Amino acid sequence: DAKTTQPTSMDCAEGRAANLPCNHSTISGNEYVYWYRQIHSQGPQYIIHGLKNNETNEMASLIITEDRKSSTLILPHATLRDTAVYYCIVRAPGMRFGAGTRLTVKP
Amino acid sequence: KAGVTQTPRYLIKTRGQQVTLSCSPISGHRSVSWYQQTPGQGLQFLFEYFSETQRNKGNFPGRFSGRQFSNSRSEMNVSTLELGDSALYLCASSLVTKSEKLFFGSGTQLSVL
Q1: Among A61, A66, B103, B111, which residue has the fewest nearby CB atoms (within 10 Å)?
Q2: B35 in contact with A, Cβ within 8 Å
Q3: Predicted confidence (pLDDT) per residue in A66-80, tens digit
Q4: What is the pLDDT of residues B55-91, one digit of tens each?
Q5: Contact A58, A71 (CB under 8 A)
Q6: Which chain B residues have a beta carbon less than 8 Å from that of A93?
Q7: Angstrom distance (rounded) from CA B46 to CA B64
Q8: B55 vs A96: CB contact, 8 Å cut-off?
Q9: ω into residue A44 within 30 of 0, thus cis?
């Protein structure tokens, strides 16, 4: 299974862009990168996914490097409600969630 | 459209007992997967069901089992409960197996005393 590595925690000022990095150097050519987030006491919430092209939706943007060994999730204008644990996952039989990055958005 | 529904929301059991948790997926979703979340181990994959068949299984002992019914509803069972089984059990549904989008329920918080 491809493994992912994320920083343990990050802070971001409210209104600024939050850039969350993820390394997945062992990713296979046909494996997608998925991002989920979990707000305290709730189930994880799907954010976005991609294969090799950059993706954007109403929640975030996903930038994947050309060699696909790393990616960055971008929340363009972070709000206090974006404070959560963010998980970067490479699909395996059964999504394997790592420890994720605890993002704290500060006023 | 209603989301993923898990019942009960909270449960207290004693060691040695068994427990059954229920999950109703989003209407039309045929795949259901289960996860265990603890402060120490994080989110760990238990198993995934699609069309009443277990498709994938995580590294959990045989005390953890599950099943899926023809209406896609799923149950998971834990027998001979141990203190370490105290956790938040999350169910997720998706349209098909290996889907990119999992929709999670709010979970069942199990406490084993």
Answers
A1: A66
A2: yes
A3: 999 999 999 999 999
A4: 989 999 999 999 999 999 999 999 999 999 999 999 9
A5: no
A6: 48, 55-56
A7: 8
A8: no
A9: no
- CA B81, B35, A72, A103 torsion-angle sign: negative
Other Cβ atoms closer than 10 A to B33: 28
For A56, half-sphere exposure in the C-beta direction (CA atoms, 13 angstrom radius) is: 2
Which positions in chain A touch B4 (Cβ < 8 Å)?
A: 43
- Buried b vs exposed e over B67-80: b needs ≥16 C-beta within 10 Å? bbeeebbbbbebee
Burial class (CB in 10 A: 0-12, 13-18, 19+), A75: buried
**Cα(B79)–Cα(B62) distance, integer angstroms:** 9
Q: Which residue of A has its CA nearest to B33?
A: A94
Nearest to B61 by CA among B42, B79, B88: B79
Instruction: Judge contact between B33 and B48, C-beta under 8 A.
Output: yes
- Report how far residue B80's alpha carbon sits from residue B57's, in angstroms, rounded to the nearest whole number: 20
Torsion of CA B62, B55, A91, B103, to 10 degrees: -90
